[in-house]
Design a protein that fits this description.
This protein is an alpha+beta fold. It contains three helices and 13 strands, in the order αααβββββββββββββ. InterPro entries: Ricin_B-like_lectin_EULS3-like, Ricin_B-like_lectins.
């Protein structure tokens, strides 16, 4: 009996031997100094690829309708509206980007274009349907997006044209209630898509 007891006592001795292994974790500290530099790098490249930059060199256009020629298409509070013309306001300066004009045409064969605001870099986007306001979306020139493409109709007289969706020319850009019978254009008139009503509030000019 006494003999067996002595035998199990030799186990703790072996355990003692295994103790010197924990020190290696010190290597961990070299991990700390490396992360900061890459963070700086990505911030710098982000600046260079700003969506507004490609538009800076392009000539700007003014967009107005026959119902009130001294008012221009502009962006205010995230909406496209008509406001008194101010040539020095970049929110009234648009770029008529015809990058995809040879690729995408409407059913009558007219070439498409995007209207991109110089101040915000946003493009005018189709509304969700008839009698709804047009929308805004960030413009990416390298991405073909039909929902921001428009075409102009034939000359409707005095060089005014309808501006309509490239994929549904029955819906026209419309200064909401901007015709004389409905009160006319005022500062803040919203821009909708509407079926053709022949009104002066649906006849537009895009001029340099």
């Amino acid at each position: 009996m006494d003999h067996q007891h002595h035998h199990s006592n030799s186990h703790p001795h072996q355990h003692h031997h295994a103790e010197p292994s924990p020190p290696p974790p010190v290597v961990h500290t070299t991990h700390h100094p490396t992360p900061p530099p890459p963070v700086h790098h990505s911030a710098a490249t982000h600046h260079e690829t700003h969506p507004k930059n490609p538009l800076a060199d392009k000539p700007s256009v003014r967009v107005y309708c026959k119902a009130k020629t001294d008012y221009s298409l502009t962006i205010r509070d995230g909406h496209i509206i008509l406001a008194p013309s101010n040539p020095s306001d970049p929110h009234q300066q648009w770029v008529k980007d015809e990058k995809y004009s040879t690729k995408v045409k409407d059913e009558e064969g007219f070439p498409c274009f995007a209207l991109v605001n110089k101040a915000t870099g946003q493009a005018m986007k189709h509304s969700v349907g008839a009698t709804h306001p047009v929308q805004l979306t960030p413009y990416n020139a390298d991405h073909l997006d039909e929902s921001i493409l428009w075409t102009e109709s034939t000359d409707l007289g005095d060089s005014y044209r309808a501006i309509r969706m490239v994929n549904n020319i029955r819906l026209n850009v419309d200064a909401f209630n901007g015709d004389k019978q409905h009160g006319g254009v005022h500062d803040g008139t919203k821009i909708y898509l509407w079926e053709w009503k022949k009104g002066d509030n649906q006849r537009w000019k895009i001029v340099h």
